[in-house]
Amino acid sequence: MNILKFLVSVIFLIYCFSSDLKAKNLEIEITKNLRCLICQGQSVYDSDSEFANSLKILVEKKLNEGLDEKQIYVYLKDKYGDWILYDPGFNKNTYFLWLLPILMFIFGGAIILRKVILKKKKL
Amino acid sequence: MKTKIFPIFLIFTFSIIFFVFYKGLQNTNVYTPSLKSEIKIPNFDAKDFFSKDKINSDQIFIGSDYYLLNIWASWCVPCKEEHKYLMDLSKKENIKIIGQNYKDNFENAKNFLINLNNPYDLIFLDNDGTIAIEWGAYGVPETFLIQNNKIIKKVIGPLDEKILFEIKELTQ
Questions:
Q1: Residue B5: other Cβ atoms inside 10 A
Q2: How many CA atoms lie within 13 A of B125 on its CB side?
């Protein structure tokens, strides 16, 4: 019976904190996908520069205003360009970037397949 | 035949990679997106530097006058260097210079203006740096030339003789 009570209270506590945690997690997720433009090579989440700190505050503000993740990305892309996103959208500037790995995969697969078929034929 | 294709392919691939990296080495690695022609200015609320009254950007940038928005801070060394150019521009009648005080201490900022003179027609506060992001700015100093609620020129970093000349040309 005691164990049951304990479990119920734990679940209740987790439930209470989870909504708050979720908002914080989303903020972290967004700032991890933003490139710090002052200290390139670091995400906004990792950086402690003035620019990154302001951006963290802004993301929090925008989330409180009710914008979702995508709207925040669009908002920042408008101001700073694709470069600010670590995960850039699919558009005419990024076709090559996104399709190159797929092309390489297909090309490599074709080479392997050919080798395997040739080997089988020999056997 | 089979053994020949592979080395040729390998050499070809590596020479392309070498070429791309060699070219890339000479490029500057600081990327700043080019300004899309004539971006509309953002709308924001801010506090006046001296009176601490709330002002909206609509009340600052009115009509077809030229406005020069300068983001500055007393702790920023390049801001001191560009100050004389701002003083020069403040003598021009058709440009209003607006200051955006970025993450600064009020007393230090006030002393900065007393020691070096005040070129600004109006200053507003940006204590957490979020208004700078509304502008798409990176930090201090940064300057925007505005007309008809549109940004017509953006300067990242301190002003110099050449930029001063360009601004004077644009606002003729």
A1: 9
A2: 17
**Per CB distance under 8 Å, which residues of B are interface residues toward A?**
29-33, 103, 128-130, 132-136, 138-139
Block mean pLDDT (10 aa), chain A, length 123: 80 71 83 86 90 92 90 89 79 81 94 92 80
Tokens describing residue B135: 């502008």
Distance CA B88, CA B90 (A): 5
Query: What ipTM did this prediction achieve?
Result: 0.72
Q: Do A58 and B138 touch (CB under 8 A)?
A: no
Number of folded domains that form chain A: 2
Quick one: CATH architecture of B39-170? 3-Layer(aba) Sandwich (3.40)
- The two structure tokens encoding residue B86: 């701002």
Subunit contact B138:A53, Cβ cutoff 8 A:
no
> Average pLDDT for consecutive 10-residue bins of chain B (172 residues)?
81 93 75 64 91 91 89 93 93 92 93 94 92 88 90 88 91 85
Q: Where are the beta strands (DSSP E) in B5-141?
A: 39-40, 45-48, 54-56, 66-72, 95-102, 122-126
The partner residue sitting opposite B130, judged by closest CB among A37, A54, A81, is A54
Residues A84, A112, single domain; the answer is no
Cross-strand partners of B99: B70, B123
pLDDT score, position A122: 80
Report the C-alpha gap between B157 and B144 in whole angstroms: 11
Written as one string, the DSSP assignment of A16-33 is HHHHHHHHHHHHHHHHHT
Q: Which residue among B33, B132, B133 places its CB closest to the CB of A81? A: B33
Residue A102 and residue A46 share a domain: no
- Calculated CA dihedral for residues A8, A9, A15, A16, nearest 10 degrees: 160
Cβ distance of B30 and A40 shorter than 8 Å: yes
